[in-house]
Design goal:
214 residues, 5-stranded mixed beta sheet, 3-stranded antiparallel beta sheet, 4 helices, 29% helix, elongated
């Protein structure tokens, strides 16, 4: 039996079971944790892989026609930590442009948790001004540390106070997603090619001369 999953929020995933070509296709909806939360064969090795909800919602939005998909009235905020280094902050702007083009979502805004603008409040206001009645805050962080547990929820709640008719949700961070294996491996290979003189610096290292042997 093979499973095909549609990417939607962590609480609910629509799956389609394809038993064989000679049997009919059944579609059902059930709760399945996202890939990056699945337990390894020895679950005791990591407390961060428990099958638990990793999204925070204020619950003020009521029933939506399709709550499991990003719609025209949804605003997406991609928030990183923020840096005093201008080049680092500009990379988030570039990623948001890539994300908007790749997904086709109409309202996508960048935000920095601290140290730089636009802030979470700025991004929240921008989403509402563009017509969003639900804001999806997606932390551009690897793991659910203090910033995900405390700082981002606090800043988002403060921003939402100015817009009582707008609900919001804070999604899980990137976590242990299978695709990150390819991303990290690609970075390693590119840096080794650069050190060998076969490739230029990547966008992350450009102009820093950090990618070298010591």
């Amino acid at each position: 039996m093979s499973m095909e999953s549609l990417s939607i929020p962590p609480q609910i995933t629509a799956t389609r079971s394809l038993v064989s070509e000679t049997t009919r296709t059944r579609t059902h909806v059930k709760w399945i944790p996202p890939n990056f939360l699945e337990l390894p064969r020895s679950p005791a090795k990591s407390k961060y892989l428990l099958k638990r909800r990793l999204c925070l919602s204020n619950g003020n939005g009521g029933i939506r026609q399709n709550p499991h998909a990003v719609g025209d009235k949804d605003g997406v905020i991609i928030v990183d930590h923020g840096s005093r280094r201008k080049e680092s902050n500009l990379m988030l702007i570039e990623f948001v442009a890539m994300f908007r083009e790749g997904t086709g979502y109409p309202i996508v805004e960048p935000a920095h948790m601290e140290l730089a603008e636009p802030s979470i409040r700025d991004a929240f206001v921008s989403c509402v001004q563009q017509g969003a009645d639900r804001v999806i805050v997606s932390p551009f962080f690897l793991f659910p540390g203090r910033h995900w547990h405390q700082d981002i929820p606090s800043l988002t709640a403060e921003a939402a106070k100015e817009h009582p008719g707008v609900s919001y949700i804070i999604t899980a961070p990137l976590g242990l997603h299978d695709l990150l294996v390819d991303v990290v491996n690609d970075r390693i290979k590119h840096c080794l090619h650069h050190v060998a003189g076969d490739a230029d610096e990547c966008a992350a290292c450009a102009g820093t001369s950090k990618c070298r042997l010591y």
